[in-house]
Design a protein that fits this description.
The protein has two helices and seven strands. The protein is α+β, with helices and mostly antiparallel strands and about 140 residues long. Strands 2-3-4-7-6-5 form a six-stranded antiparallel barrel. A hairpin with a 2-residue loop joins strand 2 and strand 3. Helix 1 runs antiparallel to helix 2. It is globular. The N terminus is likely disordered.
């Protein structure tokens, strides 16, 4: 979104929600959710190659379908996973986001996180192949 360089990365199609194609990894990490000029601090509850479930921050005022950017802090502030996401669903205390775009460096961090938690190289390869097979030509408009 604003200030982000989207020159290299993976852009993803939205997938049907009735069949989970990506394993969810329970993951506790601080994050920021940006929508337009507004930024909320939150916490990741789980993550997958396709999206993020985060704690709903106080004062949240958005509706499903709205584009956002989520920054998930790894190792303090040493590295981060940054995704352009779309708000998929809102619950009382949680927000579900579907990934629309992830840059290559963030995708590498996410791949490593999933790899460490899955413990199954074949399953990781399947998820990566599915993610890449659903990419589209260019990043979303900022």
């Amino acid at each position: 979104m604003a200030g982000q360089s989207w020159s290299r990365g993976v852009v993803l199609h939205e997938l049907p929600t009735d069949k989970r194609l990506f394993h969810r990894i329970f993951f506790d990490a601080p994050c920021e959710i940006q929508m337009g000029e507004r930024v909320w601090s939150s916490e990741v509850l789980d993550i997958s190659m396709k999206g993020v479930l985060a704690r709903r921050p106080e004062g949240w005022k958005a509706f499903p379908g709205q584009p956002c950017e989520i920054t998930i802090h790894l190792n303090g502030d040493v590295s981060a996973i940054v995704m352009a996401v779309k708000l998929r669903h809102i619950e009382t205390d949680r927000l579900g986001f579907v990934c629309q775009y992830i840059d290559l460096e963030s995708a590498s961090h996410l791949k490593r996180l999933v790899e460490l938690n899955l413990g199954d190289q074949a399953e990781l390869e399947r998820e990566l192949s599915h993610m890449l097979a659903n990419q589209v030509g260019k990043p979303p408009d900022s």
